[in-house]
Amino acid sequence: MSNESFEVFYDGDCPLCVREIKTLRKLDRKDRIVFTDIADQDFDARVTGLSQGELMASIRGRMPDGTLVEGVEVFRQLYGAVGLKPLIPLSRLPGIRQGLDAGYKVFARNRLRLTGRCTDESCELPVETA
User: Nearest Cα to 12, choosing from 30, 50, 46, 38?
Assistant: First the structure.
């Protein structure tokens, strides 16, 4: 990861997530984003300091200085990295910010159901076992 790259940790088993990542890959002409699939069998959550369950619960990203961000802030950083910086201040306006944050939380909690990935037993996000 370069000193200017933003790393996104995404669920490669989530069809909606993968669609968004494909779009961002196309837009990332200056290679400012590192894409890390947390569903990949070789991925080790320990590199983030978080558990696999925490990463599955909400999209996370790592700033160039190593700071972790979560939720809508990840999308702000991603869109800024691909040249859509004018959207960032709009997404922080009162009312819009709260709406985006609330909408993302609803999506994150219901992501398996919304993407048809519920099992017969549950529609809960996987929980890490020790």
Answer: 38
